Fold each of these.
Amino acid sequence: MTKIVTDVICPFCGTLCDDLEVAATDDGKKIIEVYNACVIGTEKFLHSQASDRVTRPRLMQADGSYKEISYDEAAEYTAQMMAKAKKPLMYGWSSTNCEAQSMGHEIAELAKACVDNTAAVCHGTTLIAVQDIGLPTCTLGEVKNRADRIVFWGCNPAHAHPRHMSRYSIFPRGFFTGKGHKNRKLVVVDPRPTDTAKMADIHLQVTQGQDYELLNAFRVALKGEWLPDVVAGIPKEKIYEAADILKSGRFGIIFFGMGVTQSLGKNHNIDEAIAVTKDLNDYTKFSIMPMRGHYNVTGSGEVMAWQFGYPYSVDLTRGFARYNPGDTSSIDLLSRGDVDAMFTIGSDPGAHFPFNCVKKISELPSVCIDPHLTPTSGVSKLHVPVAFNGVEAGGSCYRMDNVPIDCRKVVEPPEGMLTDEQFLIMVRDRLKKMKGVA
Amino acid sequence: METITITMKNQPALYLEADCVSPDAFAGMTAAQIAELSVYEGNVTGTLGKYFDVTGSAGTTAADTKIIVRGDVKKVKYLGMKMSAGEMVIEGDADMYVGAWMTGGKILAKGSVDAFAATAMKGGELTIEGNAGNYLGAAYRGDWRGMSGGKISVKGNAGSDIGMYMLGGEIVINGNIDVHVATHAEGGKVVIKGDAKSKVGGQMVEGDIYIFGSIDIMMPGFKPAGEVELEVEGTKGKFAHFIGDMGERHKKKKGQVIYANLYKKI
């Protein structure tokens, strides 16, 4: 017999879908089927059931082979590494819950470490821009119930956030949007004809790396000022037309992704996009929202900002929090050789960082806390597998619109496995003893 | 003026934060006292004397003190931070934050400097004989007050984001620059004798940019406003005049809207 667990939260992307149903065995140990989730979310649940899963910490030996060790030994190794390092980097956090993040920050304070989350290679530039000029934003519920002008700028939710369009942005029929997609106008700005762009009323195929110019042109067009004939590969008539469409809506929203945050212009692109949103509010109600990737990267920013005052790239080495991406951000620290130990949790820099940084991780004392086998676990000296958060452990997570949602535990982890938070508590307690703190 | 020389003897394994190396911190101290000042390598606090040989003596005031930095200081941050008077000569390349938040005095960097040099500079002079990194004379993260006074001269090239949020003062670059110059500026003057790439003067409210070389991509917010004869940094010539950023907010003076100016040599 099976039992159905309802209202399950999907721990994959920043959309944090909360309507999943999971069929599990009666003893609550195995997942049989996942309903309502997208293909990526389903895979995340089913992947946790893999028979060849690593269930105990493994320490890399001199010859490159692994030796299985206990969680106690792994916690001791991690605490020793953090205590000895002059400038350890604690990176990741985006695929674990806020409780584990908070516990990790206690370790960071004790060890005087640098703490950074995946925003450093993702929406960190957004956070810089938000600091520079603010953020007129809203919740996804407001988008569903009110928005009739949708802009996707440099993002492709059809593939990256598969249920975003059906739950919130294009198709749902909300309180003031009873006709669903029929009374929504969709503008997509992307250099590639993506599957999202194919659905657009207007697709502006911007020249790559010139989003800043196009955003600037939108501001000029909104003010009715002079424009050159072509901006970023788009004729000016089309820019004026798109600006009029946005102005004429009742409630509009700009969603943006990696295409603008990590292409030429970076934080300035977002800065200008927020300025466009601000300008549009002279005519109608407009909001803007980053399409956050990991399911709890927003939560990591929230917890870090609440505890240290900054949302990512925090340097605690001198006993107080400092923040200056370019100096205190992970890629810069690693590529400049400004760290001497690497602690990774809930993310995979091995797959996403430049090669020289990954090489640096392989040369440093390093710990990787992750339920999966990843390129990062492959280059780290110690790999600590843990329970899947959101599948085998609950905890607070933040959706891309900064709404906190409590994740659910659906099944039991394999016998004897710890959660992120349980393992971090062991490390913290050891580190406290080493540092002579009560 | 008294001269004090610090010479690198033990390279740090990581990067060294030496924010005590400024005439203000050294003034009135003997070489032995200066060698006892704190510097930071990661979370370990050391003394300046552990990494540098310190010779000579400092003047009684900052204005009376000249510091010569010798040896390889490519891994030393914050040289000349917050200095208000006196002089400093860095003989080789230096790392980030050279002359950050300086309010007076002179710094001569004979080599190149990395990013964030002269962050939020208020006064004084910074001369760089090599190249400068990104965020030269820009505001600190999250701050809307960039460089507000003083002069920065660079003989080589400079990186991106120079003069971000600039309020006043002057930056002169002899070579080329990367993207973004004087973004969000509300005053000041930037002269680029070489080429600029793109995003020149984006979101600029007020201030002047002079470009002697080429601009790869013009900002659409800058509108042509005729040609003018100008003398800039000793060079006379004809410049194409643009006003902008038309998308940005602007102040009014005596009923006239004040735009930022971009002059490009013809």
Amino acid sequence: MTEINSVVEPVGSVVEPVETKKFNIDTVENAANTPDTDLPWAELGLKQNEFDEVVKVLGRRPTAAELAMYSVMWSEHCSYKSSKNHLRQFGDKVTEEMKKDMLVGIGENAGVTNLGDGWAVTFKIESHNSPSFVEPYQGAATGIGGIVRDIISMGARPVAVMDPLRFGAIDHPDTARVMHGAVAGIGGYGNSLGLPNIGGEMVFDSVYQGNPLVNALAVGVMRHEDIRLANASGKGNKVVLFGARTGGDGIGGASVLASESFDDTKPSKRPAVQVGDPFAEKVLIECCLELFKGSLVEGIQDLGAAGISCATSELASNGDGGMEVELTSVLLRDPTLTPGEILMSESQERMMAVVTPENIAAFESVMDKWAVEYSWLGEVTDTGRLIITWEGEVIVDVDPRTVAHDGPVYDRPFARPEWQDSVQADSFTGSVQDAGRPAAPAELAKAVTELVASPNMCSKSWITDQYDRYVGGNTSMAFPDDAGVVRVDEETSLGVALATDANGRYTYLDPYYGAQLALAEAYRNVATSGAVPMAVSDCLNFGSPEDPDVMWQLAEAIRGLSDACMELGIPVTGGNVSLYNQTGTTPIHPSPVVAVLGKLDDVARRTPSGWKEDGQAIYLLGTTANELDGSEWANMRGHLGGLPPKVDLGVERSLGEILINASRDGMIDSAHDLSEGGLAAALVESALRYGVGARIALQDVMDRDGVDLFTALFSETQGRAIVGVPRSEEVRFNDMCTARGFAHTRIGVVDSQSGELAINGVDTLSLDALREAHEGTLPKYFG
Amino acid sequence: MTELPLIGGAPAAAEMFDGGALAGARIGVVTFPGTLDDRDAMRAVRLAGGTAVPLWHADTELGDVDAVIIPGGFSYGDYLRAGAIARFAPLMGKIIDAANSDAKLPVLGICNGFQILTESHLLPGSMIKNDHLKFLCRDQVLRVENNTTDWTLDYAAGQEITIPLKNQDGQYIADEKTLDALEAEGRVVFRYMGFNPNGSRRDIAGISNAAGNVVGLMPHPEHATETGFGPESLDGVGGSDVDGLGFFTSVLTKIVGGNK
């Protein structure tokens, strides 16, 4: 490989690189005159056909700076080149009804949904998987930072965060490293921003050992008139970069780009993981909200992946189409950065905005008030070109659309894996691992205890206690309830509920239905809290799209999820695709994490998961089938095969309506959805929530559904929930369920005196012993 | 434009106390860069019936306020040492003077505010990292050891209250002589009950100055002032989730009572 910017002086002869920019600047003119220069496109991740396309688009070889821009913006992460053709279904399978409340759809930083009363809500979930494996604390921390900036970019005040996590086996020595780092990072960053962490998930599975999943969700609220979009309009408007200075962190291709510079005294191995500064982000939040309040910005864009490359090309292509920027105006933490590095840097806590000349003084006074650094980089033009100069010399001259939107799109080959049939044929029931299935009362009691102490079903308070769930004073519900609930308007008590779910095992067994099951569970969780589900955001975590097996999983999951969204009548408003999640050639379980957002007219009406009142009736809603394949019980026994639980979205919708109406009309005081761990897990969790037990009898359920006691307790049949009904409401509640033709069975009563969970046919379980088992697991492994 | 998130008037709670007479009392709430719980403290003041006045760290005058709350958060990121930079804000000089003056301005420091008060030497001792080295958020039981300070008048002596605790650097330390003096002078205002969440010396959760007008504590009373948004104890049902309201009604009563 020939270095594109050859050394101008012998290495080591210059001792003060800070004062002089000692690199040959590869100008557009130079590029036109030196067409045969070898470029490190392969090292930057471009394929031959992609590089050829860049040359074709430009009509010449790209400059070093242009190559940097195209390589990051055409990466899988930024361009969605492998998933784009499939993701279209989220936009295509949308009814008029689903569009009704969508104020901003897919494609912006985050979608916006109408909440009524002039309020709007925006939420999005993203991945920060690879950085969180390399450097768990900073990887997870900057994951929170990035998603929060997406929310600010829409004009919203962020009001809460959530974090779905998936780590390797709980007893693997490396898991503690990732766990401690990621949890501390999420807490350290999120807590410092003043955003309550209201929920999430935690799954341990060896498939995530070399590739943990650290997803982050943020939600924000705004008045309709405050919605901001990422576009640069209005010729002559000024472009400003503000927030943290630009440093050398987060440059993926650093080792290659370093060859731009002659000076090998500069740090040669820059960290590929960005380093977060939550204080800077907190100040940036307040500063941006003040800008919005004064209507001081025309367009705004956060700097995340691909940094300035992304912000300039997206702002320009979404607006009037042109922009001129002088790159030496960028404030630097490290003055030795080359133009390409500056364009690729993923330094955190930065924003780019477009400001009219009249607002410059007001903009600057807001910056000064919050002591935020800023620099004016250039202005909006109507030329349709993004021109970037370096001391006046043109180093980038491109049509910004070709960078931001017209990247390569691939129809990756995909095919149902050969192994899929044999996996699906291997049911848990009757398998070797199913031998000795618990049946006697003592065995069943032991099984329940073992279940609630298992890594995936145990209490996650070791994690959530490291997060501030109170800050803001608007948290109405948080973990361990089914959904997080945050108040939006203090006068009307309007609020939103959020839940995230995914089941990698189900999705491995059947990606189409697995993705639907994730949606069904998140939908059910939101409805269980009493909220009306309104919108979906998804984070699709999969292996390599170049593996046809994985590509099939992705295609099936997207098809399943988009079909299910249409059937449930809630649109996908945004999300993220994370591919290449694998160790060597072994991909993770396909893990589409689905977040559902719902609306509560009055957060005081939200339904918590725990029992409180003595003597209240406990009802099981829905029917139970023998569905143990892919279950937590099968997982505990080391079995993964068969078919995941059946999806019936009509049942989910009916159940949701019952839970929402019952909450609104005051018919229930508690509700908890049944999912992983089945009825056994739900009963224990409802009891431990407030330390109040119950007496349970499942004979009616067993007789009606034709299942044994073990199946009634451990099956993971969907479309079910348990609810606590005050005696005074029982008739009304029964009538409602009957009128809707929904299966409902009284399975017991709340018992606040005994301190026990007494299930007929199961040895009585003391709440103290259950709590010890449930809460002891994470501290045992992680201290 | 409406302020986000809406900070409602919550008039119902104010009327509960005394028909609005307390609204004449003005409680300043200081915002530093990195302050997080300022909106929450202002809401708590309003819920108790008073008037909340936002104060900016860079202001050079305290203005017309009857008391000051320094709320929680991570001022200046806590990067040097919690509270160490905020202590030098122009407004802090005014607050220190007013607290030490004959008028004895009531000052409450919550969490990061407590750390700022110790850095300002309005209160003795200091906070170091929790003994378990992790951030901890939990519903914490406290015993009110002294109900004669400006901020605890509405509690009974020995009363146990539950309010949220959430911090990383919450371990209260001081030398033995200081601790003995605090105990002897009744200046240990709150003690952790049942569980010491951070290794604080002698289970101390909060202290006061000698005059009782300056109080600092690590847990967050402002997060236990509104039904449905306060602590829901995990091992009991029917407990109050507004145990923190007494801090704010105490100082308002004191101010309106003419003892300012």
